[in-house]
Amino acid sequence: MDTHKKLVLGIFGFGVVGEGLYKVLNQTPSLNASIRKVCIKNSNKKRNAPAELFTTDKDILLNDPSINIIIELIDDAFAAYDIVKTALVNGKSVVSANKKMIAEHLPELLELQQQTGLSFLYEAACCASIPVIRNLEEYYDNDLLHSISAIVNGSTNYILTKMFEENLSFKDALLQAQQLGFAESNPTLDVDGYDALNKWTFLLTHAYGILPNKNEIIFTGIQNVTGEDALQATRKDCVIKLVAYAKKLNNGKVAAFVLPQFIKKNDQLAFVRNEYNGVVIESSFADKQFFYGKGAGSLPTASAVLSDISASRYDYRYEYKKLYHHKPNELTNDFYVKAYIGFTDWSHIRKDDFESIEEWHSNDQLNYLIGIIHFKKLQENDWWKKNNVSLVLSADPVIESLEIDKLKKRSLELAGFSGGYSLY
Ligand code: HSE
User: Fold this and answer.
1) Which residues carry out catalysis?
2) Which of 119, 153, 286, 367 has its Cα between 20 and 30 A from that of 408?
């Protein structure tokens, strides 16, 4: 192992993260890394770096034999995949922060890593400054990992914090997130939950050895969460967060989704405010562990890229242990959740989808219900994603089918009849 290996970098992109990396590298001389070239799309933009560093020709970087590592920090997932693929085939290690590209191409990228034996690292692609991928990869055995609750999108967390703590409008809070460089260039990716979904797909690979298809995971963002929902949260001593969640069920299968959730005010995730991200891991024996740090922004994201560059010096690679060396887990939608549904019109709600409804208000002041619903119903029908309907899961949201069966049986016994059941 050559820990003094000289790294010669070819960087793609000089936006929020690319420029951050440039600054961070200039402050880390001990890394023994030099930037050979930076490939950009628009040569007319003024950049805070010497002009001779830049080119618009990607092949200058990809075909330069002196460059041994490509750092891919561009926005366009389609172009990014092409760059990463070519770099690996041309014998260069790669560091990327492109969550959409990784979520869409991980199977092909796994194959390329196996074929080339080169490292492809992407710690910055999920939770920016928090080293969550390497921890899931290296530290937690498959069997020990009970559940993960995570805030993985900084912009939506920033918006929720500003709306509910400072009464800022959704629009103004989003504008701030954009100005501060947290939001995607198309902020719908943040707001509607796509970015969190992308991150969650490959985190599930490192956590549980699952290679999910994005369509398998039920998700939404914060687009329909209202001030009224926040008020209900406060009444229940909770806050609302967009949570990426996974839990290993008693049958060994994994429940996973990205949905807004009520979080008790004394829960660790409630302390995750603004653009910070947080990950709570529950494992056998260790109980709960909490990872916390900035989840978006120039220098926090660049710090994770820097750490991957540094790890490449000693040829660190993800081994995808849970995928290749364990029996990989399977996803399931066969469980129930307890959900709050806010609405403006009762007729928009498919109440027959619920197993039971334990609270229901439909009047001038209050319009919401709280009930138990089978998760497959959320997959089959999307009434809960429509405008003017907001779904927020309860704290500790997953209820296993067995528990519901017991509840149904008990309600039948109590009712003293044998036909049909109702938990209402
Ligand atoms: N738009 C992303 C976020 C950037 O807000 O989390 C970091 O991945």
Assistant:
1) 199
2) 367
CA 347 to chain centre: 33
DSSP string, 33-95: EEEEEEE-S-TTS--SS-GGGEES-HHHHHT-TT--EEEE--S-HHHHHHHHHHHHHTT-EEE
Give the pLDDT band (50/70/90) at residue 412.
low
pLDDT at 141 over 90: no
Per-residue pLDDT at 423:
39
Backbone angles phi and psi of 110, in degrees to 5: -65, -45
Probe residue for ligand 1, chosen from 74, 132, 190 as the CB with the greatest number of ligand atoms within 8 Å: 190
Nearest-CA residue for ligand 1 atom 4 is 296
Share of the chain above pLDDT 70, in %: 95
Cβ of 155 less than 6 Å from ligand 1: yes
Q: What is the mean pLDDT of residues 319-324?
A: 94
- Which CATH fold would you assign to the domain 336-415? Alpha-Beta Plaits (3.30.70)
Question: How is residue 417 written in tokens?
Answer: 């009849």
Tell me the CA–centroid distance for residue 240 and ligand 1, in Å: 18
Predicted pLDDT at 4: 64
The correct CATH number of 132-293+320-324 out of 3.60.21.10, 3.30.360.10, 3.40.50.2300, 3.30.200.20 is 3.30.360.10
> Sorting pLDDT into bands at 50, 70 and 90, what band is 309?
very high
Instruction: Decide whether any atom of ligand 1 lies within 6 Å of the 123 Cβ.
Output: no
Q: Where in the chain is the domain with CATH 3.30.70?
A: 336-415
pLDDT at 417 over 50: no
CATH class of 7-125: alpha beta
